[in-house]
Specification:
Structural class: mainly alpha
Shape: globular
Distance between the termini: 83 Å
CATH architecture: Up-down Bundle
Helix content: over 70%
Number of domains: 1
CATH class: Mainly Alpha
Order of helices and strands: HHHHHHHHHHHHHHHHHH
Radius of gyration: 22 Å
Number of helices: 18
Largest sheet: none
Strand content: under 5%
Number of strands: 0
CATH topology: Na+/H+ antiporter like fold
Length: 418
């Protein structure tokens, strides 16, 4: 069987299994992404191991992985495309508080957990940084299915995740620079300048350059010219974010979507990109997370360490980001929802952990525990969000009434009296 036919076989199995699993998940009252993640585990080395069939070349695993990476870029691009820059700006305070506390808590708890289990100072700090990473792509997909992405919680969640990503990448860059002996104040300042320069230039071009170009391309007699241009912009922003800005490519893709959302051709772009993403690349991304996990590699001697890491990861994000959201002005119920949406680590956690493994900051067993943490947090986030958003708004209404009748607002209480 030729290499192309092998790839065609894998893609047909992955896509068909993803859609069937997604349908079954929806029938059970859960988001489709949960089914896609679970079927990835079934197809992966934990059970069927389709990538290791005798007639499948090993190099195709890398091809599937790269297609999955395109999927997450498209997913974040669409998440940005559904939003308006003005809406994001309105929730800037909440996003900043939630993003900041959503980093401080898990990093601090992870650092302490690492020291408790005998890791050296550098490994413990890196473990904390790994737990501080957030992958909002899975939460964004779940909120899209729940039609809650443009709610106050959804907008704040995306903003907090972007803030979180920038802060974690900044801390990681500074940490690696210090570990490499190149952590002079000048080099640290240079890292910050690169990030700020990328964000500034990207926004300026997106606000003034993109609308002008989009208007002209939309009038050209080119088949799907607007869709192709949107793909190029998404990839260019992703490349620039990682290569020039020192941030994750998904941040650039999200920013590209946010900028194109301001153009008059937004609906045409969204229609084409949505079909391309959900018809091919996004299912591959979610299934590939499961394909990269081998539950058979789990060792009992690392069970306690893994359990602690998972608890710290979940509690750190949920409490930290939720508390930050509360400080930023969200209600108690909304803060709990936002904190839950920040739990998932997904591909960002795997990327950060891989950096530590390559640089020798963590060993194979510690990396395995982090992978297990990524898997668990990725799996539990969608059902938690669905439960939280499915709850009636009685709690929020009760809290609002109590706030109006509290001593802090005596006039409201008096006006309520007969």
């Amino acid at each position: 069987m030729s290499l192309f036919l092998q790839l065609a076989f894998l893609l047909s199995i992955i896509l068909l299994a993803a859609k069937i699993a997604g349908y079954l998940s929806i029938r059970l009252g859960q988001p489709s992404v949960l089914g896609e993640l679970l079927v990835g585990i079934i197809l992966g080395p934990s059970l069927i191991n389709i990538l290791n069939f005798p007639f499948i070349e090993h190099e195709l695993a890398g091809t599937i992985e790269k297609l999955g990476e395109l999927g997450v870029l498209l997913l974040m691009f669409l998440a940005g495309l559904e939003l308006q820059f003005v809406e994001m700006r309105k929730n800037l305070r909440v996003a900043a508080f939630a993003g900041l506390m959503g980093v401080i808590w898990p990093v601090g708890l992870g650092w302490g957990a690492g020291l408790l289990f005998g890791l050296d100072q550098a490994a413990a700090i890196f473990l904390g940084l790994t737990l501080g990473a957030t992958s909002v792509s899975i939460s964004a997909q779940t909120l899209i299915e729940l039609k809650a992405l443009r709610s106050r919680v959804g907008l704040s969640l995306l903003g907090a995740a972007v803030f979180d990503d920038i802060l974690i990448i900044l801390l990681l860059s500074v940490f690696l620079a210090l570990q490499g002996g190149g952590g002079s104040p000048y080099e640290v300042l240079l890292i910050i300048i690169r990030m700020m320069a990328f964000l500034g230039l990207s926004v300026v071009f997106g606000l003034w350059g993109l609308p002008w170009i989009v208007r002209r391309i939309s009038k050209l007699p080119i088949s799907q010219g607007l869709l192709t241009f949107s793909l190029v912009i998404m990839l260019a922003y992703g490349i620039a974010a990682e290569y020039f800005g020192g941030m994750a490519a998904i941040t650039g893709a999200f920013l590209a979507g946010l900028m194109l959302a301001r153009t008059p051709e937004k609906e045409r772009i969204e229609s084409g990109m949505h079909a391309l993403a959900y018809g091919l690349f996004v299912p591959i991304f979610f299934v590939n997370i499961g394909l990269s996990i081998d539950l058979g590699d789990f060792h009992l001697q690392t069970l306690l360490f893994t359990i602690v890491i998972i608890i710290v990861a979940v509690a750190g994000k949920w409490i930290g980001a939720g508390w930050g959201a509360r400080l930023g002005g969200l209600s108690k119920q909304e803060s709990i929802q936002l904190g839950a949406g920040m739990i998932s680590r997904g591909e960002v956690g795997l990327i950060v952990a891989s950096v530590g493994l390559i640089d020798g900051l963590i060993n194979a067993e510690e990396f395995s525990a982090i992978v297990d943490m990524v898997l668990i947090t990725t799996l539990i986030t969608p059902p938690i969000l669905r439960v939280l958003f499915a709850q009636k708004k009685d709690g929020a209404e009760k809290e609002s009434i109590e706030a109006e009748q509290s001593p802090v607002n005596p006039e409201a209480k008096i006006s309520e009296e007969p």
